[in-house]
Design a protein that fits this description.
The complex is a heterodimer of chains A (138) and B (115). Chain A is α+β, with helices and mostly antiparallel strands and 138 residues long. Chain A has two helices and ten strands; from the N terminus they run ββββαβαβββββ. The N and C termini of chain A lie far apart (45 Å). With 115 residues, chain B is an alpha+beta fold. Chain B has three helices and five strands. In chain B, strands 1-2-3-4-5 form a five-stranded antiparallel beta sheet. Classes of the chains: A alpha+beta (138), B alpha+beta (115). Chains A and B meet through loops of A and strand 1 of B.
């Protein structure tokens, strides 16, 4: 299995497999894109990789909370280019973050991660941004 | 007690959130914190049916509660002692975090975000 970490092409899309509580009344919920405790990236899968379907099916088979009534799965599709263009503001002022999509093929071949970094350090859930990285006046 | 549809739906959502156990997502998520449940119930008691028209509720993996508007790009996050909100209207982003929780203020924010 390829253990090389590479960035994912801007032309690709990535899929976030959705927990049942992340779809309410057919509306995608914000929680689908929140980092979990101890996570340093948001897990996604790459439809461009041949094993995508089998990787996702294998995942949902072992995680029933990600299965829907008809034993299917749902996912949110995100354009990699759009992800990279995400801007973060604090009190209306831009924060210098780097949002990157990188392969994580050592999990499954189609696995990838969305990282949000400040000064090359991954943001984690509940993390405090050091004041020196905050925009002036915040 | 008779309730209208939106309130009833909100009550069902809160009840659903309160049943989530640790690791509900399969990756170490926290159960929804009892104080967060208590807070949203306090908001519910002050609200009327119309207040919930466009809101959906979902769990955050850190034990807090997300509220999300289907009308605008607006959301709230409610914890034990604090809440935050974000909105984007007419291309303008606005939001605040670490606001001390108070049921009246929270409800007022919900109303203003959907106004």
């Amino acid at each position: 299995m390829d253990k090389t970490l590479t960035i994912v092409s801007n032309e690709e899309k990535v899929a976030r497999v959705l927990h049942r509580d992340w779809v309410v009344g057919n509306q995608l919920q914000l929680g689908a894109f929140a980092l979990r405790p101890n996570e340093t990236y948001i897990s996604v899968n790459r439809p461009a990789v041949e094993s995508f379907e089998s990787d996702v099916l294998s995942f949902v088979e072992s995680h029933p909370a990600y299965q829907y009534s008809d034993c299917s799965y749902r996912c949110a599709m995100l354009g990699v280019k759009d992800i990279r263009e995400i801007k973060v503001n604090v009190n209306g002022k831009p924060l210098n973050v780097d949002v990157e999509v990188e392969t994580r093929a050592f999990h499954t071949a189609s696995h990838a991660g969305i990282f949000t970094r400040i000064d090359k350090t991954n943001i984690k859930q509940g993390g405090i941004i050091p004041p020196k990285f905050l925009p002036l006046g915040v | 007690m008779a309730t209208n549809g939106n309130l009833s739906h909100a009550i069902n959502s809160i009840n659903r959130l309160s049943t989530l156990k640790d690791d509900w997502d399969g990756f170490g998520a926290s159960h929804i914190l009892p104080a967060a449940i208590s807070n949203i119930r306090a908001v519910l008691l002050l609200s009327n049916d119309d207040d919930w028209t466009h809101w959906t509720m979902s769990p955050n993996t850190n034990g807090t509660i997300f509220l999300q508007s289907a009308k605008y790009i607006s959301s709230l996050s409610l914890g034990c002692e604090e809440f935050s909100y974000f909105t984007k209207k007419d291309g303008v982003r606005n939001g605040k975090s670490h606001l001390p929780f108070d049921a009246k203020n929270f409800l007022s924010t919900m109303r203003s975000l959907n106004a």
